[in-house]
Amino acid sequence: MEDIRKVIRQSKTLIGPFPTFNVENTAAHPYELFLEWFQVAIANGVHEPHSMTLSTTDPNGYPDARVLIIKDVDQHGWYFASSSESEKGKQIEQNPNVAMTFYWPEIGRQVRIRGKAVKMAKEDCAQDFLKRGTVARAIALLGKQSTIMNRQQDADEALRNQMAILREHPDLVYPSWTLYRTVPEEVEFWQAQEDRNHIRLKYFFEKDHWSKHLLWA
Ligand SMILES: Cc1cc2nc3c(=O)[nH]c(=O)nc-3n(C[C@H](O)[C@H](O)[C@H](O)COP(=O)(O)O)c2cc1C
Fold this sequence. Notes:
The chain is α+β, with helices and mostly antiparallel strands. Helix content is about 30%, strand content about 35%. The longest helix is centred in the C-terminal third of the chain and has 17 residues. Strands 1-2-3-6-5-4 form a six-stranded antiparallel barrel. α5 crosses α6. The structure holds flavin mononucleotide (FMN). Flavin mononucleotide (FMN) binds next to β2, β3 and α3. Flavin mononucleotide binds next to β2, β3 and α3.
């Protein structure tokens, strides 16, 4: 135990060097700044920059979180997809308030989004589903995400069967596959500084426009 404590305490975070974040000249809409940061992430070789942690709450208000990928970003919000019958899907159904967290360690940047998840039209969900790889579609078509499984071998066998069905019917769409849009209400951009005096800029949606403020780190 002593050793692990030492290893943890000696582990380095936020090593740098980091890109510059000029807070004087930021975009009016947070999605524009997100896209700028996303491009910087790609240019700096950030591993899986489209991965984020989606936080939801269960009916008792107990938080839950898991990593997902985003499918798109535009002026209306951030998009992700999953089964509406999964745990997260059920949680979103009863409470659409969600948070999304991106962390890009290579450039010392974190983006936090809070907002409401809304379901996209059935055709958009189906289109998203059909763009997924064959194995991913087959697994989704099993319709068992987040349910209890007896043995790992059950998954192998079920997947083999489902792959055979998909070969016969490649246009099958899992009806519960859902493309969600997180409509943002608050978006915070956090930039690490090598001197540890980190920068935080937060956008707030107020009635019909975005305002932004610096926050103490
Ligand atoms: C990098 C990464 C990307 C993932 N992307 C997705 C995704 O786009 N959709 C999805 O349903 N699950 C995705 N998962 C799996 C989820 O983390 C999670 O295990 C699953 O959705 C079940 O979550 P739930 O039980 O809270 O509903 C991903 C996992 C990782 C590590």
